């Protein structure tokens, strides 16, 4: 094996090792990222009733390890990286995306805890003049480069590993996409170079890193839509999130990235008050059944759904709704 291949293999395998995923030939649930609340006082949170394993035709997927009832909380997830949208920048917490009552001129944190958790990446970010990068992204209507910018600051500050997204499936990129990404990379790099951020802290920031990260973010990021209240009822929370047009930011999570898509999903993801995601069952699910979410608006017609899934995620959906022409 060539040394280049060795390196690639090492990079690919290390996140698995770190998360202790390999277990009984299955990809073990990332249990320390996720829990189920335990109703019994003084007891440890339960591990989620799921495991990640290979599907027949859609790569890895998430499967139920026991029966799950309609409405059950399957697990929660904290993001690996998140960022508010440009339009929410001044009215949500810069760390947890919680909506704030006042709109300020600068970024805000909702609590000292969030300020503290953001301390590392923000100490890098606030030393940089981002205007050229931000202006480019705003004009082009780009949202994902904001996540790359935040991840770059997290890595530079030591708050995240440069390889933390490597385990996720990357999007297939066209030459045109790569050329655009190269432009963004040059802008990001020049913003960071014009500061006192040390060269050693920036060593990870190569064109390959930028493109690799963006390729993963493209198909694994979630639009965070806050329900805006304490909706325990599944239907009400879904309605509230659509009604409020409540998209406040984008985020990438570890375990939620392994759920495949179905136009008639059996689980969904909700955000109650901040970026932490809750995955809930939409119907009863049997042990061994694959859990699937819907990546898009399921109310669209079949043609629209197929087009969005192909252009955005690079696959042709063959779920039962699509097969039966619904
Ligand atoms: C967020 S990832 C889901 C996890 C992925 N299967 C893996 O192995 O990491 C999304 C990718 O999974 C595959 N996928 C998800 N749902 C699919 C479906 N209904 N039909 C075909 N491929 C699907 C596509 O390659 C898609 O780009």
TrEMBL record:
The keyword Transport does not apply. GO terms for molecular function: methyltransferase activity. SMART domains: SET (SM00317). Residues 48-296 form the SET domain. One of its GO terms (cellular component) is nucleus. This is Histone-lysine N-methyltransferase ATXR4-like. Signal peptide: none annotated. One of its GO terms (biological process) is methylation. CDD domains: SET_SMYD. Keywords: Methyltransferase, Transferase. Pfam families: SET. Gene3D superfamilies: 1.10.220.160, 6.10.140.2220, SET domain.
């Amino acid at each position: 094996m060539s040394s280049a291949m060795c390196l690639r293999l090492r990079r690919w395998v290390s996140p698995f090792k770190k998360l202790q995923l390999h277990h009984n030939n299955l990809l073990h649930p990332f249990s320390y990222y996720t829990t189920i609340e335990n109703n019994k006082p003084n007891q440890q949170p339960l591990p989620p009733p799921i495991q990640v394993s290979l599907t027949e035709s859609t790569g890895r997927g998430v499967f139920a390890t026991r029966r799950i009832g309609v409405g059950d909380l399957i697990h929660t997830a904290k993001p690996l990286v998140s960022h508010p949208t440009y339009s929410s920048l001044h009215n949500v917490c810069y760390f947890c995306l919680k909506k704030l009552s006042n709109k300020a001129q600068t970024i805000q944190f909702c609590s000292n805890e969030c300020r503290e958790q953001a301390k590392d990446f923000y100490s890098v970010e606030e030393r940089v003049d981002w205007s050229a990068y931000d202006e480019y992204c705003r004009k082009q209507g780009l949202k994902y480069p904001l996540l790359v910018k935040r991840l770059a600051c997290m890595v530079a500050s030591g708050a995240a590993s440069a390889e933390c997204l490597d385990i996720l499936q990357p999007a297939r990129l066209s030459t045109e996409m790569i050329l655009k990404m190269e432009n963004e990379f040059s802008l990001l790099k020049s913003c960071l170079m014009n500061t006192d951020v040390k060269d050693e802290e920036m060593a990870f920031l190569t064109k390959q890193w930028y493109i690799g990260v963006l390729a993963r973010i493209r198909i694994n990021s979630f639009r965070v839509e806050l329900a805006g209240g304490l909706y325990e009822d599944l239907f009400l929370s879904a309605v509230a999130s659509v009604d409020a047009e409540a998209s406040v930011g984008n985020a990438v999570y570890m375990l939620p990235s392994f759920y495949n898509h179905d136009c008639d999903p059996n689980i969904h993801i909700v955000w109650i008050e901040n970026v932490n995601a809750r995955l809930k069952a939409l119907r009863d699910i049997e042990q061994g059944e694959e859990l699937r979410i819907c990546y898009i608006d399921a109310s669209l017609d079949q043609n629209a759904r197929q087009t969005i899934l192909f252009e955005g995620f690079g696959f042709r959906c063959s779920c039962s709704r699509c097969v039966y022409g619904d």
